[in-house]
Each structure stands twice: as structure tokens, then as C-alpha cells.
Amino acid sequence: MKEVVFLVAIILVAGQCHGAEHGAEYPIYPLRMKTGAGGHYIPEISCASWRLGVEAHNVVDWTSIPEDCIGYVGNYLLGDQYRSDSKTVNQQAYFYARTLNFTDKDVWIFDIDETTLSNLQYYADHGFGSEPYNATAFNEWVELGEAPALPETLKLYKKLLNLGINIVFLTGRPLSQKAVTATNLKLAGYHKWMKLILKDTSIYHGKTAVTYKSAERKKLEESGYKIIGNIGDQWSDILGTNVGNRTFKLPDPMYYIS
Length: 258
Ligand SMILES: *[C@@H]1O[C@H](CO)[C@@H](O)[C@H](O)[C@H]1NC(C)=O
Ligand SMILES: *[C@@H]1O[C@H](CO)[C@@H](O)[C@H](O)[C@H]1NC(C)=O
Ligand SMILES: *[C@@H]1O[C@H](CO)[C@@H](O)[C@H](O)[C@H]1NC(C)=O
Ligand SMILES: [Mg+2]
Fold this sequence. Notes:
The chain is of the alpha/beta class. It has a domain at about 75-250: HAD superfamily/HAD-like (Rossmann fold, 3-Layer(aba) Sandwich). About 45% of the residues lie in helices and about 10% in strands. It has a 5-stranded parallel sheet, with helices on both faces. α5 (about 80-95) packs parallel to α8. The radius of gyration is 23 Å and the shape is globular. About 30% of the residues are buried. The structure holds 2-acetamido-2-deoxy-beta-D-glucopyranose (NAG) (3 copies) and magnesium ion (MG). One 2-acetamido-2-deoxy-beta-D-glucopyranose binds near residues 134, 136, 137 and 140. The site of one 2-acetamido-2-deoxy-beta-D-glucopyranose has 3 residues, from loops. Pfam families: Acid_phosphat_B. Belongs to the APS1/VSP family.
């Protein structure tokens, strides 16, 4: 008899935990995701939350990735998830673009670093964004002109060219890197563009990327162009003014540029 009462009690409790009154079949463990089943801390889970926070622009102004998340971010970038996330964004951009009828005044803006060209090789050697930014070392890498294309962005680029839209590259790289950037773009498969805009540091020294990019997009629109799409890996690529009819944010858990 005792056993039967105990069993009934267990079934009742289990039923409540399963949210049975709403017909839900899954258990609800309020804190389980954070602590893990055995009460253990699982870095992968908090790092996934951190990355979501970064991509949604809830985590802002960070200078390097959390120490605990270096392994997680490295696995993300070198594994299939980064490629898959990148594909989803670029696909959505194409699904949007193909519904439009372009005129020769329509432009699509591409950022360069971590949007059209990948610096993953450099960052893999520098802790995936966990080391403080070293301008000297990064510029040495840029000057090699060997950054490969992000494959899913290259697909979008080619499809947009086929649709007949003008391509504008708008990058935070300084004007002094214009030649190597143009060479690198061609080497990576980006052969054609209407404009390649680099940062004139005599005008924009000390200004944020949001200020610089907004001002350059405004100039474009004031000269008669319409920005109908805009894609970048940083929120500063798609915030500010004249951002375009639709914006697309590519993943980047390595660094933050305001
Ligand atoms: C694009 O052009 C086609 C054919 O002229 C037309 O049917 C369609 O409505 C246009 N789409 C837009 C978004 O203007
Ligand atoms: C930055 O990179 C340069 C060139 O690789 C190197 O000589 C220098 O020591 C680095 N600085 C720091 C603070 O790591
Ligand atoms: C882009 O936005 C402008 C301003 O809101 C609007 O007039 C125009 O029709 C839009 N173009 C497309 C292709 O959606
Ligand atoms: Mg970028």
C-alpha cells in the first residue's frame, strides 16, 4: 500500500513537471540550461548565449571575447555552423533581391572584412579575437592581399551582378590600403564593382565607423543612387543614416567595431 501511494505521488509530481495541464510533453527545468543537468557549469551553453547576445546587439562595446569562450568561438568559426549561418543570411538577401526590379541607380553595399573577405586565417593565429587588437600585425596580414572570399557572400555577389545591380564596397580599411584591397578582391573572385570606398583618415580620423559609413552612404544617395541592400558583419555597417531599404547582418563573434 505504501508503495502504491508513493508511486501515485511520483506520477502526480512528474505530471506537473511536464506541464501536463497544458498538454505539453516536454519537461520544464527553469535553470537547467544554465547549470547543466548535474549542476555543472557548461561553458558551451553560456558562450552560445553570449554569441546570440553579440549578434542581436544586446552585448555591445566589448573589446575581446570572454576567456572561457575561446574554444567555443574557434569551434564555431572552423566548423559548419559559421558557414551555415553565413549561408542563411546571404540566401535571405538573395530572396529579397530577386523580387526587385533594378535601375542603374540602384546599389547594393558590401562591407569587406568578415563580409566579402575572411581574415579567419589571421584570427586563428591570434586567439579568435581574444587577444587585444594589434594594428601592426593585422596590417601586415592585410598587406599580403591573400584573404580568401567568404564563399556564401561570393555567391550572393555573383547573383546580384547577374540581376544587374551596382556593387559598392564600403570598408573601414584606410585609403592607403586601396591597391592591395582591390588586388585581393579580384584574387578572391570579386572582379567588378561600381565603387570601392575606403576610409579617408584625413576626414574621418577619430570618428566611429557608424559616422564614417553613414556619411559615405549619404554622399552616394545625394549623388542620385538608391541603396536597396546593405550587408556587413558589424552593427556599425547597418546602423546610422542611409542604411538602405534592407540590411543584412553576418555573424562575427571575433570583434566589435562601433
Ligand atoms: C517587376 O517587374 C515585373 C514585370 O514588369 C512586374 O510584374 C513586377 O510587379 C515588378 N516588381 C516590382 C517589385 O516592382
Ligand atoms: C604587434 O605585432 C607586431 C608585428 O607582428 C609585433 O612585433 C608586436 O610585438 C605586437 N605587439 C604586441 C603588443 O603584441
Ligand atoms: C526603398 O525605400 C524608399 C524609401 O522608403 C522607397 O521609396 C522605395 O520604394 C524602396 N525601394 C524598394 C525597392 O523597396
Ligand atoms: Mg567587416
